[in-house]
Amino acid sequence: MIAISAAQRSVDEFCAKHPTAEVHALPDGGFSVRVAGVILDPAFWSKNESAIAFIVPAAFPVQHPDCFWTDADLRLKNGQLPSNSRQQPPHPVHPGMLWFSYHPSKWDVRDTVETYFHLTQGRLLDPR
């Protein structure tokens, strides 16, 4: 029997809840996860929806994701780039996306890929 990593198990559970999620295995044992059509608040953002992409590290959940990407053209309602975002570093599977430096302060090894996805959505509820 082949053992399934905690990262793979959590990605599989996430995909069961989000069947449109696009997942790619990475050479280091981690996974790229991308969810299109995430709804945004148009009162704060230049768009009504965006993709969110992030990397699930091979050592997940001990090592948690620490940044995420959105559509390249996502801006604040006033046209400015959001704080702690830029076009680099590129996403390993989806280059050209807008990178957010994001490091959640609360993380527990019992947290899941779903937890991190909700944390990224929470960051996007804070239009800065």
Explain what this protein looks like in three dimensions.
The protein has 128 residues and is of the alpha+beta class. It has one domain (6-124). It has two helices and six strands. A six-stranded antiparallel β-sheet has the order 1-2-3-4-6-5, with helices on one face.
Structure summarized in a few sentences:
This protein has 128 residues and is an alpha+beta fold.
Present the secondary structure layout.
Elements: H1 6-17, E1 22-25, E2 31-39, E3 49-56, E4 67-70, E5 85-86, E6 98-101, H2 113-124
Antiparallel strand pairs: 1-2, 2-3, 3-4, 4-6, 5-6
Helix fraction by DSSP (H/I, runs of at least 4): 10-25%
Number of alpha- plus pi-helical segments: 2
Side-by-side strand order of the widest sheet: 1-2-3-4-6-5
Largest sheet: 6 strands, antiparallel
> How many domain modules?
1
Which structural class do you get from the secondary structure elements? alpha+beta
Instruction: Count every beta strand, where a strand is a DSSP E run of 2 or more residues.
Output: 6
Query: Ends: how far apart?
Result: 48 Å
Low-confidence stretches: none
Shape: globular
Radius of gyration, CA atoms, in whole angstroms: 14 Å
Q: How big a fraction of the residues is strand?
A: 15-25%
Question: Helices and strands, in N-to-C order?
Answer: HEEEEEEH
Overall mean pLDDT: 93
